[in-house]
Design brief:
By secondary structure, this protein is of the alpha+beta class. The protein has 2 helices and 2 strands; from the N terminus they run αββα. A hairpin with a 5-residue loop joins strand 1 and strand 2.
């Protein structure tokens, strides 16, 4: 395995093809960036059925403007 190398593609395929099993200590997955969607946390009732209750987990909308510069 080459040191300080960046792989592009599906992480499962890259791990299987390029990385030795004993060398992986941590895998960090990041959600899609700037998908322009709100991601919600959905709740379920005690019996397991869907609930109308939800909260916004995070908003994935990024904008470049002067406020972000300072």
């Amino acid at each position: 395995m080459e040191k300080n190398c960046l792989y592009y593609g599906d992480n499962l395929a890259v791990l299987r093809e390029h990385i030795k099993d004993e060398s992986v200590d941590l895998i960090y997955l990041d959600p899609p960036f700037n998908s322009r969607q709100d991601y919600n946390l959905l709740f379920a009732e005690k019996d397991g059925t869907c609930s109308c209750a939800q909260i916004i987990a995070f908003e994935d909308t990024w904008e470049w403007n002067m406020e972000r510069l300072f």
